[in-house]
Amino acid sequence: MTNNKKSGLKIVAKIVVVLIFLAVIVGVFYIASKNYVTHEIKDKVNFIINNSNVTSSLKADVFVQDGVVYVSKADIANFFDSTITYDEQYNAIITAAEEKVAMLPVGKKEMEVNSSNVKIKGETVQKEGTYYIPFSELGDVYNIKITYVPETNIVTVDSLDRAYSIATAAKNISVKYKTTTISKTLAKVKQGETLSIANRSDYPVPEGWTRVRTKEGILGYVKVNDLGESNQIREAMEKQPKIKGPISLVWDYYSEYAPAPDRTGTTIKGVNVVAPTSFRLKQAGKGQIEEYIGKSGEEYINWAHNNGYKVWPTLSNESLNDTTREILRDYKLREKMINQIVEYIVKYKLDGINIDFENMYEADKNYFSRFLIELEPRLNEIGAVLSVDVTAPDGSPNWSLCYDRYTIAKVVDYMIFMGYDQYGISSDKPGTTAGCDWVEVNIQKFLGQEGVPKEKLILGLPFYARVWWNNSSGKLKSEAISMKKFDSVIPSNATKTWDDNLKQYVVEYKKGGIDYRLWLEDEKSLTAKLDLVSKYNLAGAAYWQKDMEPENIWNLISEKIGVN
User: N or C, fewer C-beta in 10 Å, the chain?
Assistant: First the structure.
């Protein structure tokens, strides 16, 4: 081989070596850049909620003024209270949490928490059409710990119902941006300093590493071997149900014209909740509740508790739509009514309340939801159950469309579907009170289009039916007949035809030259409807009303619902 060829090969080899070296250098820089370059947000307050930096997701910047952390109403709605609202009448922000309701007047260093006045360091302000809330004053309301670290311009928020663990540094260590030693160092931690364990399912950590948060609020990764033993400071708190197992509720009706029923020495098989009709709205009463408990009512409550029944008295609006509208549309009147409910529950040692507001204006739908949003935390605080009666989602404005069932279901403990009056007193043609097919279709609507969780839905059943006839003028008439009176009303020669869609007998008979028709409620028809409770895994059943039923029906209910 000539010297020229040898020299050329050496040059080529050197070029290849240089190219490989350059490729290695580029690769090293590429890998380093991927692990060293961070996406830190340095030009604004960083907002960290339960060890997740949500700063880039904020609708408006968090700011700190005079030591008070301010967060926009929109961001509080996104992360803490989706129902937070501005009340124009009182120029105030109203927010609700698990056990607290707070009203913060705009421009005032004060707020009202569960109807108690509290002085605060900051005030709600409006800037360029956006409301900013003194968020750091709401720790007790939202059950969170809020910390601002001026050195790093970081706000950390920790939910006090979540698990919380810490560990100390076993030596001087570096907190890394990623789980690799060549990643950028975000913070230096000295031996003995405490770190919060910040692992989350949405931040997977490889074996040998753990995610941490420094006392300055910086999030990053360290090697497990660089930490001392982990200590759990707080366990996760799981919300316990206020009542366990299926619900079997019976309404027990009485009014201002008669004392509460005397049940002394009796029991009701198959029932674990009683709902006496003890409370009503006072017409034009500005939120005033009329109570009809008295001595007989107190004896009734004692009887119920002595026999192991929970007591959820009913608060009825008596279909007073104008009175209802006035209250629902005024925060202070809602608050007045809520305070009375809480007062009565505490006074009479009640276990809950059953809200029965019917015939409301469709335009008041959101205000009714608002009332329940503000009522539920007050009941949670005292451990009382909130149940609400609603009609079938069939499209009638003041009878059906007045309920936002989806929102209500998110708030309340139980929603009771009043599965009756398919054909009621105002119907222009005769029909059944509660056909099984109609009941089932509406259960499917509740669970489907209305978004009601099955574990919250209670099926309400009638202990009555309507008998229909045309009077001498040809006008359609009807009358509600209790189940236990059927034998005395229906003659022995009446014809009974089974309707397999309705799961009911259609009864026809003639009296005094007038034709009568009735869709019977009996053990067979109720069996079909009670079977829907188990078919759809509902929370239970309810019955309107006590003393309309034949005694044997309770054995059936006990068997079907599973309550002794």
Answer: N
Encode burial over 258-291: b for 16+ CB neighbours within 10 A, e otherwise. Answer: ebbbebeeeebebbbbbbbbbbbbeeebebebbb
Give the per-residue pLDDT at 42.
86
Q: What structural domains and CATH numbers belong to the chain?
A: 46-148 (3.30.457.10), 161-234 (2.30.30.40), 247-462+522-561 (3.20.20.80)
Q: What is the DSSP string of 340-391?
A: HHHHHHHHTT-SEEEEE--S--GGGHHHHHHHHHHHHHHHHHHT-EEEEEE-
**Residues 396, 398, 404, CA angle at the centre, nearest 5°?**
85
- Distance between CA 285 and CA 83 in Å, rounded? 27
Angle (deg, nearest 10), helices 436-447 and 523-535 = 20
Give the tens place of pLDDT for each residue, 270-313.
Answer: 999 999 999 999 999 999 999 999 999 999 999 999 999 999 99
Residue spans of beta strands (DSSP E) within 433-564: 457-462, 464-470, 476-482, 495-499, 504-511, 514-519, 540-544
**H or E element at residue 6:** helix 3-36
Closest CA to 522 of 505, 507, 546, 508: 505
- The whole-number pLDDT of residue 24 equals 46
Q: Is 486 helix (H, G, I), strand (E, B) or coil?
A: helix
**How many Å apart are CA 365 and CA 411, to the nearest integer?**
14
Strand partners, 470: 476
pLDDT in tens, 68-82: 999 999 999 999 999
Candidates 249, 377, 368, 261; CA nearest to 314 is: 249
